[in-house]
Amino acid sequence: MPVWTLGAGVLLFALSALGTPGQVWAQTPPRNPGLVEAVTSNPAAAPQLVAREVTAGAPDTAPPIVGDAVGALPSGQRLTLAPRVVSAAIAALPAPQRGPLAPACACAAIRAVPASERPGVVPVIVAAAVSMAPVARDQIVTCAVEATPELSAVIIAAAAEPPFQPELASPPTSPLPGSTIGRDVLFRARFNTGGQICASPPCP
Description:
Number of helices: 11
Low-confidence stretches: 3-28, 163-204
Distance between the termini: 94 Å
Oligomer: single chain
Mean pLDDT: 76
Strand content: under 5%
Order of helices and strands: HHHHHHHHHHH
């Protein structure tokens, strides 16, 4: 067989094996396909699903779990659910690991948010992470700013507001399905506003 024929055959085989870049990426499975499918099917359950996965796994699996879940959320629900996913993941960690792993959880969530949604979603993710792990505030801000430098001003503001409430520092040691840890942390101040206005009867 002529050498040029053999060379052409090898080249054709290599090209067919490589395929197109789109085909190669399409065949790459998600890191946690079961979680992605569950979140896609029932986005509202994402915080509970994430808490369950984090509780069942090693602590260092929490950031990729958060990233998979936030990435699987529908765009219309990511603003509301992404911070709850982050809060639930941090709360599900053993207490000594919450501070060390909170920045990675927050930044995994940030990186999973499409660029067009980041201006709205990133600040609430940062606020949720800081509320759940205030000792890691500086590391959370640093990581978030590195991931989205164009949002540095709003990230710094989000890390400072609302003021940290000590009674929220210790979430339940084992979050149960149906937990509203993230929602309570982020929106407790809003719910309390009515109570403060209505300090003395009659109340509406």
